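Trying the structure run again after the queue cleared.
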Amino acid sequence: MKPNKACPIVLRRTQNGLEILAFEHPLAGFQIVKGTIEPGEPPADAAVRELREESGITGVATADLGLWESGYEQQVWSLHLCEPMQPLPDTWEHHTADDDGHVFRFFWHPLGEALSDQWHSLYRDALSTIGIRLARMGKS
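Done. Tokens:
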């Protein structure tokens, strides 16, 4: 199975527990960052690139969480824990150069917290998978 999507996972720990970086797409609800792996591009490099393009964050891939068959449009995601190179605020907006120049509103979502209807089922399933994989690594 060869991945065609890269998903950078950025986490932070607060007094409320582990939180994952998420954003609100103006047309498609709540999501986590993911994007297409370019031909010949290593998946970890694609994750770092997508993180920068979609959020403005410069980061490094620190751990490979494996592949996930999403069941959606033949997407196979390569999941990578990424560490930002700078401290991140609680919320911010980022104007994307691609994706029609949309403004994405970033926020932190507590892992394990119920997901509202604003989350597409694809991202619900992805967060469930990510939570399980993080727990196996002792990061829950």
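The chain is about 20% helix and 40% strand. Worth checking whether this holds up in the mutant runs.
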